[in-house]
Amino acid sequence: MPEQEPNLAPQNEVGLVVQQLTGAEGQAQAEVFSEILEDAEPGTVALLLEALPLDERYERWQQVEFADRVEVLSLMRADPRMGILRRMPDDEVDLLFAQLSPEDLIEWSDYLPESFTDRALAQMGERQRQHFELYNQYSENEIGRYADHQMLVLSTKATIGQAQRFFRRIELDCNDSLFLVDEEDHFRGAVSRYEVFRSNPDEPLLSLMDEDSRAISADATLMEAAELLEHSRDVELPVVDDEGGLIGRVTLRTATELVREHYEAQLMASAGMNETDDLFAPIMKGARRRAVWLGINLLTAFLASATIGLFEDVLSQVVALAVLMPIVASMGGIAGSQSLTLMIRGMAMGQISAGNLWSLMKNELGIGAVNGVLWAIVIGAVSGWWFSNEIIGIAIGCAILINMLVAAGAGVLVPMVLQKMDQDPALSGSVILTTVTDVIGFLSFLGLATILFL
Amino acid sequence: MPEQEPNLAPQNEVGLVVQQLTGAEGQAQAEVFSEILEDAEPGTVALLLEALPLDERYERWQQVEFADRVEVLSLMRADPRMGILRRMPDDEVDLLFAQLSPEDLIEWSDYLPESFTDRALAQMGERQRQHFELYNQYSENEIGRYADHQMLVLSTKATIGQAQRFFRRIELDCNDSLFLVDEEDHFRGAVSRYEVFRSNPDEPLLSLMDEDSRAISADATLMEAAELLEHSRDVELPVVDDEGGLIGRVTLRTATELVREHYEAQLMASAGMNETDDLFAPIMKGARRRAVWLGINLLTAFLASATIGLFEDVLSQVVALAVLMPIVASMGGIAGSQSLTLMIRGMAMGQISAGNLWSLMKNELGIGAVNGVLWAIVIGAVSGWWFSNEIIGIAIGCAILINMLVAAGAGVLVPMVLQKMDQDPALSGSVILTTVTDVIGFLSFLGLATILFL
Prior knowledge:
The structure is a homodimer. By secondary structure, chain A is mainly alpha-helical. Chain A has three domains: 2-141, MgtE N-terminal domain-like (MgtE N-terminal fold), CATH 1.25.60.10; 153-269, CBS-domain (Roll); 283-453, Tetracycline Repressor, domain 2 (Orthogonal Bundle). The first copy, chain A, has 20 helices and six strands.
């Protein structure tokens, strides 16, 4: 009964098919899905399956043609993918694994239990297993692991004519260049498709080679690689190992995926979750994962409570303090999160360094001082009037100013310290910052109140 | 003295040059920068300038070659770009505007004061002004506004040979297809470069046309367009207007930029800031922008305080309640942000619709119930033991359970309601959610305590 559903404007094409699909049930849903399958891209099918509760998802999954299954699964997030694999009968899983390329398995293996990886390897030929081991020597944050091994490569001795035939015959995504290697398979430079087609087929290809061709080091991080591509004028860049050996390429399409995954991971990390998380995790599993983050938060909350506990005397005498307390913590938390967010954005782009840290600190402290004074006056006046007690107004005003200055400073320093400790500021930054602003907020407000009232 | 600087591992290549540049001062910095300028891409130069405090930034800006200035400014975020424009002498600005294409001006004009846009238009020829007006009819969230107008277009009557010459002669970024139009410039279909080069030059080009070619509607949102490209197998897609007229194309490179900007905007919005914000905003300007968000937060904080204010009686008698209060609010806030974040991620990908809303709600409530019971027991036990008072333990345990269930429900509903109201859930979602969990947390905890103690 779609007429009775709220009329939610779909955000995009996926939104439209999600609406059609989730609006139907049982047999009707199966029919809608087979219609969608006729011309949907595998990426869309993957998003659709993820948008279904687990039982419906597995039923619809069975409608996906066998030939498309590896690609659809590859494009799903890791948890929903694993959920489907666990539900599939053993023989179907083995058939699927037999279709997996070493590149696919590398991507899957980041989140696959070892027993599954071993089963998949058992389905592979010796050569494919060797390939897998080759890529597997790079860690999950090194671009070498995810390099695309399909590319146009010719010897530095080839002719332009050979390159022309190559470009005509082999159809690859995001392919504007051909990579030249010497006898030892070391990357020497790239040749542009445009140059190749404009030039005389009998000339040596080397004459067109760009000596300054950029290459990405295999141990570069995923975001380094994505940024190099974004800022280059190419749609693909070669990936080379320590000795300069050509091991693959990274395309602009991969860069787009990496950027999206990076920001999705940051978004999820800000709530203590993973980018692999399923929209419909089984309840116990979802609860267990989130419990860890709640537990960490509880420790910091008890710390804040313990701080308040130091001031039971003044609280029992001036109950207004208990009423106003959350305002100090809250304003500090928001001001701190503004500085922290600016830092996290800058750090993601590599724009923050030791050299500009002090200038940033001065700027943030300046902004913190201006807003601190402004809101100290507003909150002090309102609180003093509310409880008809100017001492309360003075205490909360001073506490607000102190806390907002501390928040600005901590917002700049906490992410820098975390990065130095190889921790992700997007994950733990806000918890640490909130702890700081809570504790400082309660200490300054209740401490000042103790001095002024007792 | 780089030896004394903390050794911060740069995140990427940009990080490395930022470190070199910000580590130097005055004349030394000028020299480092001119070395960097020799082979840095304009995108890197833009990021570097943004990483400098305002005075240094403008000094370095003057070193950028005149020919590169438009591109570098185009690649900067809007606020730092505007900061530079405001500092430049009038005649230099006019010279710069004279170099601006209508496409550049469209992008700049989103954040340019009208007086500047008018000055730029005055520098343009009649034809360019018409182009500007043409693109300007699309709003800031419609892809038609940002379509790339350089593309390969031929008539449906052309031959394959003509297409081959076209592909050889014209070098464009992300270009694998040629678009065919009829006499009325209506898009009819795309032809792949690979097909063109494999086929007989004398045949009609129409024979290679893909009838099912995808096109993006000019009024599609930026994220719709980016997703269509990501999920397609193409590196470019045509953009057509209401009547099917071909108005431009969107490339995979643009899609990558749009994705990054979307997530940067979401990240910044989560702290009440803009993606255009300068890392080094002038203090008063930065303070004014952030003050709005702090003010909104203050209103919700006063709402929470008012809730506590209802329970002054019980608070003045049982001071332990004031000590424990923040724990209830904090656990609810974290649990709610987990549900909210999962929703925001799903909504960005179009995966959430009326049809799966109820299933999502059940799942989140289930997870909320499991964690609610778990942490109710833990927190209840610890609190009862801390204050040697089992009634306090019971009150806080029940409040935790209630608040975590409410948090899960609100985490699902709040972003859906905001989307229906055309509000960005990433901007206002967390403020509304925190208000809900604060108020419900204090109400349930202090309300139960009142019943049990008084």
